């Protein structure tokens, strides 16, 4: 699993609310997913892929209730309310083709835990949703249909006749044939279950027709804002908890006045900073596929590499800053991780992977 993949916590809040509305206790959701109340309430936090997948498994357990309250007319409104820049970009492209392309390019603003492939022939364009999570979600309805509903609303925004041509196939199954028919009726396009693939297909007849309300200058402004959002997500791909811990550790290593050269105290200091018990911190890290010792060593290595580039610092000073008992202990640690001595690394000796 790619630990750098994340999902906007807006999605998690929506799914959390769905589960609560269907009698799943909040405590149970927090326990099974590892998503804390803090992560749900903060406006700018991303949820790790591991946490998102666990939440999706819980949603799949309520599959038969998933689209009972669905209101298609509010899809684009909800996207605008939650992701205004993305919504503005998707509804102000020069053609339907460009609107589709922009969704595929910028959908990471919503989440990065799946893939969509594009295929086309002379008359049709097909989007295939590919699950990249655990096998248990391979026949999920929520994720592929959620993406297809957004895509359908974008298509309908540009051309209602093209919307009517949409055909969706899903690998998952509804509870009954009647429920499948109801879903098709609700969506306004054909939706077939038990398919071999998750696909959305539509006619290309009007795909390159110029959009009459397109505003080029406004589009450029919105695109710049969307690029900034996307770049921020990519550059901060580490999960919020992991990032917070790493920042505290860096601050700890970079402050020689408060630094206590005792690695055993590091987790205690971090727990004091975050005001949470040690077992809670360790449990939350476990949910993200991490553990504190490895995270501390990774951060220490990153700091060691940074400090070694500062020629005014001796190896002894660096080892002290990083909390090692001696320069020899620091050298052993560095060589074990990088397969090269600190001095040779500083002098530009090439680093080789072990093996």
UniProtKB/TrEMBL annotation:
Keywords, ordered alphabetically: DNA-binding, Transcription, Transcription regulation
InterPro entries in alphabetical order: Homeodomain-like_sf, HTH_AraC, HTH_AraC-typ_CS
UniProt GO cellular component terms: cytosol
Domain HTH araC/xylS-type: 243-348
Pfam families hit by this protein: HTH_18
A GO molecular-function descriptor: transcription cis-regulatory region binding
Record SMART domains: HTH_ARAC
Protein name according to UniProt: HTH araC/xylS-type domain-containing protein
